[in-house]
């Protein structure tokens, strides 16, 4: 004996069971992704594997400077390294202080858990005294630093 409501009900149950399995699979994948991202964030907060820090800023600055010497235009040097002028200008005090006065630079500690690179760059700029400022201006005049106008 066949009951008209049972067959569609069985199909609906099977469909819902498959949907639950699919949702459980998606939840598992999302949990794995969440855990991966959490490890990335916590690892960076602890200073492990820090891809964006003062070292990268200095390296990028030196690469752009080297390219600028070859192409003679800052816009072309920025373009070749896929970085905009604002980024270099905002973080330039980090590289300039490190190049002009490594001793003063070494007294400043960057803690990625407590401050941003922009805040660190501002601390570097505030650490520039008149003597270091003259040194930076001299290095810019001799082509050892980018001729970006920074107010110290």
Please tell me about this protein's structure:
There is one protein chain. The chain is an all-alpha fold. It folds into two domains: about 1-50; about 55-140, no CATH class. It has helices at about 5-45, 55-70, 75-80, 85-100, 100-105, 115-125, 130-140. The N and C termini lie far apart (about 90 Å). The relative contact order is 0.10. The model has no long low-confidence stretch (mean pLDDT about 85).
Largest sheet: none
Low-confidence stretches: none
Q: Helix count?
A: 7
- Whole-number radius of gyration? 27 Å
Structural class: mainly alpha
Short description:
The protein is mainly α. It is 72% helix and 0% strand.
Features:
single chain, 152 residues, mainly alpha, 7 helices, elongated
